[in-house]
């Protein structure tokens, strides 16, 4: 007999011995008790089931051949009891055929012992079975503990082999929201398909490198669960190797870190952003400016200027006193929105067509904001941006039925002239702000006094132009479009002049750019349209007038409706108004530009592409523009008789217009030689000083309906053509 057995706790293991042979039970009882086991006996299967149900044992010795229910059936029923699923069952059998052994295992037996029993080995077989059972219990506890830990950590494990077979934990399936059937037949491709499309190729490359090159990886990416929810996960994986070091698969863990990412985002939000407006705070603003300046100075040959603007709401305390703290907070949020919108506006972006400004807006004090504008074309653009922002802030804010009006002042520091780093620029912008406040209401000042002088001069010219528009100082002149074969006027173009009280008649080349920079181009365009239609209403019905449409007017959502109201007010048909747009205007947003052209054409207006050849639009774009007319820019007409390239280009434009069924008009025709070449190339509608300079309305009316005399009988062109 073997040595006595005692459990680690000092408790004797409890066995159940089931056999209908009294002699065998007696021998077994004596042997097992001597070996250190507590044994309960039963002489039938029914008795054994009742005994086990009342007091479960740690191991069952079960005879196969018994009266009543046999050992096979007893084992099957035992396995159905609450404590019987995992208990070790050793079948005692005198049957040595493989069929009986197979039947024993199918009934749920753990092992079997053949009769006659070798009593010296019996206790060892029992101890082995008990140790195996204990190991399974420990293993199951470990598995459950691991599952619990994985569930708490939102972490699942997986592995796959070289043949594409994949095994994954329950928590991995839970992370992916995978149904049970999908989990059972999962493949690496199935789970890769749940990776967000933006990350999928990166994850696939990493897994492939782990499987075929043995390179471990750690990645963070987004998945789309089976229920459609998007989650962020972190994945660690390493190659699997066999005993010979050969790659046989990949194993890894995938952890759902969505909550952690969101918590980090919230912490970052609290640390770096203003809680009231959601804008960056001063610390984060300075970090972003320094980062932008490093990129700006990293060798970009075409980099523009950068500027830091410090904006302060003047006497904002009175707003808090009048509206209360909550009301003041609401007003500040409106201001923040306006500053953000103002730095994204089309007008601001138009300051430097080659590199639209990138902007950052921050709230740095109770009523103070700071902005960075990047890639400015000129120092003056920072001042123009400041003017727009001041006007945006000063627009009345409706609060509980009444208008609240704010006043702002802005200080400007320009990089690199006023400082090389964010902190230095911010300090200088703050100093400039104090100067702006001392200067009066709604002012901005540069840190550099020389720039302030330029800004003051420009502000004065803007004020004069604004006054000129409002006080009726604008005048319209009209330049004919002439059929070179008949010398008759076939259309006119309206050109604006400014009758300045001190400077006299100012040509558009001296004020149109100012109007575009200051936002006055839209009211100026509105005036030209109104004046042109007012004149057109009294002209012969076959005459159409062309008007240049400025970019802000063209972009306006209500342009078609406003034009319809205008022509209706003057009793005109839309077809008598030719709207001239430029290539650069359309190429800034081709899709929107084409849509707007179609809308205007549907309203009945004629459409002309001005300065064709200078805006770099491709032929494929021109083909899509629903135009009626192309105008060849004067730059190509000037040297027609001496520059073969210009002549070839003009010929190409005329051919293109003919293929697209468009009328083509040549601008800047000043000599009979130019006119002859153009006619030879197929362009017979000309506009230029060879035929007539821009004229006031009475002088133009005298030409309508009559053939123009030869050029030799008319006064020659002035030395410098107007724009």
TrEMBL record:
Domain EAL: from-to ranges: 458-708
Tagged with keyword Transcription: no
Segments forming domain GGDEF: 304-449
Record Gene3D superfamilies: 2.10.70.100, 3.30.70.270, 3.40.50.2300, EAL domain, PAS domain
Record domain Response regulatory: where: 14-130
Record-linked InterPro entries: Biofilm_reg_signaling, CheY-like_superfamily, EAL_dom, EAL_sf, GGDEF_dom, Nucleotide_cyclase, PAS, PAS-assoc_C
PANTHER family: BIOFILM ARCHITECTURE MAINTENANCE PROTEIN MBAA, DIGUANYLATE CYCLASE DGCP
Protein name: Two-component system response regulator
Organism of origin: Sphaerotilus microaerophilus
């Amino acid at each position: 007999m073997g040595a006595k057995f005692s459990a680690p706790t000092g408790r004797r293991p409890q066995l159940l011995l089931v056999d209908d042979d009294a002699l065998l039970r007696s021998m077994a009882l004596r042997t097992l008790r001597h070996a250190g086991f507590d044994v309960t006996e039963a002489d039938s299967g029914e008795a054994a089931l009742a005994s086990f149900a009342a007091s479960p044992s740690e191991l069952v010795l079960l005879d196969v051949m018994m009266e009543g229910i046999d050992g096979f059936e007893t084992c099957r029923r035992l396995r159905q009891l609450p404590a019987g699923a995992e208990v070790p069952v050793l079948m005692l059998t005198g049957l040595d055929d493989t069929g009986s052994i197979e039947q024993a295992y199918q009934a749920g037996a753990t092992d079997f012992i053949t009769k006659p029993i070798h009593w010296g080995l019996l206790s060892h077989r029992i101890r082995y079975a008990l140790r195996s059972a204990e190991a399974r219990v420990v293993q199951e506890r470990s598995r459950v503990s691991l599952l619990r830990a994985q569930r708490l950590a939102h972490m699942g494990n997986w592995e796959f082999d070289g043949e594409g077979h994949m095994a994954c934990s329950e928590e991995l399936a839970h992370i992916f929201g995978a149904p049970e059937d999908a989990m059972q037949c999962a493949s690496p491709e199935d789970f890769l398909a749940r990776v967000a499309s933006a990350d999928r190729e990166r994850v696939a490359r990493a897994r492939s490198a782990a499987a075929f090159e043995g390179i471990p990886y750690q990645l963070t990416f987004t998945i789309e669960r089976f229920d459609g929810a998007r989650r962020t996960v972190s994945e660690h994986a390493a190659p699997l190797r066999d005993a010979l070091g050969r790659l046989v698969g990949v194993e890894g863990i995938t952890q759902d870190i969505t909550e952690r990412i969101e918590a980090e985002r919230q912490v970052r939000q609290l640390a770096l952003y203003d809680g009231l407006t959601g804008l960056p705070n001063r610390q984060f603003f300075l970090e972003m400016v320094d980062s932008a300046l490093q990129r700006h100075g990293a060798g970009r040959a075409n980099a523009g200027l950068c500027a830091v603007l410090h904006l302060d709401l003047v006497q904002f305390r009175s707003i808090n006193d009048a509206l209360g703290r909550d009301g003041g907070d609401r007003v500040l949020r409106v201001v923040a929105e306006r500053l953000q919108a103002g730095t994204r506006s089309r007008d601001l972006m138009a300051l430097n067509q080659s590199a639209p400004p990138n902007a950052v807006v921050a709230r740095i004090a109770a009523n103070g904001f700071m902005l960075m504008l990047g890639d400015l074309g000129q120092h003056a653009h920072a001042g123009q941006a400041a003017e727009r922002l001041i006007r945006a802030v000063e627009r009345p804010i409706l609060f509980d039925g009444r208008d609240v009006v704010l006043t702002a002042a802005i200080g400007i520091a320009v990089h690199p002239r006023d400082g090389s780093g964010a902190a230095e620029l911010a300090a200088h912008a703050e100093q400039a702000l104090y100067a702006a406040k001392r200067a009066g209401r709604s002012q901005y000042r540069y840190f550099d006094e020389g720039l302030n002088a330029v800004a003051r001069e420009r502000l004065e010219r803007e004020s004069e132009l604004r006054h000129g528009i409002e006080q009726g100082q604008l005048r319209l002149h009209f330049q004919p479009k002439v059929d070179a074969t008949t010398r008759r006027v076939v259309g006119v173009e309206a050109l604006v002049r400014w009758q300045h009280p001190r400077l006299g008649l100012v040509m558009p080349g001296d004020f149109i750019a100012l109007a575009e920079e200051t936002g006055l181009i839209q009211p100026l365009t509105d005036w030209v349209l109104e004046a042109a239609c007012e004149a057109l209403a009294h002209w012969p019905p076959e005459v159409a007038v062309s008007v240049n449409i400025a970019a802000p007017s063209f972009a306006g959502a209500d342009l078609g409706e406003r034009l319809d109201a205008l022509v209706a007010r003057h009793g005109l048909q839309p077809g008598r108004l030719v709207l001239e747009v430029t290539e650069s205007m359309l190429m800034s947003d081709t899709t929107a530009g084409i849509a707007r052209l179609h809308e205007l054409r549907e309203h009945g207006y004629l459409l002309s592409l001005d300065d064709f050849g200078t805006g770099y639009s491709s032929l494929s774009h021109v083909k899509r523009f629903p135009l009626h007319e192309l105008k060849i820019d004067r730059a190509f007409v000037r040297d027609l008789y001496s520059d073969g390239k210009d002549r070839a280009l003009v010929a190409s434009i005329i051919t293109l217009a003919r293929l697209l069924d468009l009328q083509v008009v040549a601008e800047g025709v000043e000599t009979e030689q130019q006119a002859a070449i153009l006619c030879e190339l197929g362009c017979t509608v000309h506009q230029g000083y060879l035929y007539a300079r821009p004229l006031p309305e009475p002088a133009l009316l005298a030409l309508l309906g009559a053939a123009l005399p030869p050029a030799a009988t008319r006064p020659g062109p002035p030395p410098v053509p107007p724009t």
